[in-house]
Structure formats: structure tokens, C-alpha cells
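Review form for a predicted model. The reviewer records the input and the model, then writes brief findings.
Reviewer: anonymous (R2)
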Amino acid sequence: MTNYSTRKNRLAKPGIFALITCLGLSLACSKTAEDDVYTNDPTVALIISHNWKIKDIKVPSVNMPNTDSIISKQCHTTGAVIKFGLSGTDGVFSFADSTAGSCDSTIFPYDYGYWGLRLAKDSLVFKGKKTEYRSMRLVSISKDSLLVNYADSASVPHIVKTITFIKQ
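Model under review:
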């Protein structure tokens, strides 16, 4: 005589496990409306569309205030790789010095961590591993370049640096 209740329990357990697994995966992979708004934003899409490199870093000239002086070094323009990405609602950034730390980090703040775009879409904000909080004013963005102003509070006196990134 076959015990149907035991056989029924053995067949039900894998089915319930499969149902729970599918439900868990669908919830884990589902996006919220907030995720869609952020990832579909055209400014964010341009920023994360490719890696960037530094074209130049400028500061106002001391002797001629209406002109700029380029302070970036070759290691900044040939070695730095700037990456912006998304991981859920947390953006991940990396300002990497490919010269293994020998490029002047007082000119450009090498770091990595999380980034975001202010609601007014006028600034990029960063929370890095080396610094608690940093902001760069978004001056302009196109498919080929990104121009920001960075108020360097580490320099004395404080200097506003203009950084031009170009797509890599």
C-alpha cells in the first residue's frame, strides 16, 4: 500500500522551494520608480556613458585675473581615469591615478566612493574614502566633454579650479 501523504509532501517541498526562490529573485532584481527616474535622467546618462580623462585643470592667473593658468601636469592628462557608474540607486565613482600615486593629488583629488547629482542638476556630489564630502559645480556637459568648477578648500587661499574632462 502506498502512503500518499508522504509522497505528496516529497513532491510539494521542491515546488514550494522553487516558488520562494523565484519570488525572492524577482523582488531582489526589481527596480523602484526612483531607480528608473535616476537612471533615465539624460544628464546622468551622459556622465556614465563612458570613462573620462582630464583635459586640463585651470586656475585664475595671479597677475592677470581675467585669464587662466593651466596647472595640470602630464600625469593628470595622460594617466588619470575618471569613472562614474551606477549600482542600484548608489552611484560609484573612481578617480584613479594610473601612476600608482606619484601624480600630484593636491592638484586633483584622487579618490573613490559614491557620487550623485544634486536635484537642481547643478553639481556633482561625492562621498569618498579619503574625504567625507566634496562637491563640483557642473558648468557644462556634452557627449564629448564635462566641465566642472571645484572649490579646493585644501589650498590656502581657497582656489576655484576649472576642470575639463573629455571622453576617453
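Findings: Residues 123 and 137 are 4 Å apart (CA to CA).
Further findings: Confidence is low (pLDDT under 50) at residues 15-37.
Recommendation: see findings above.
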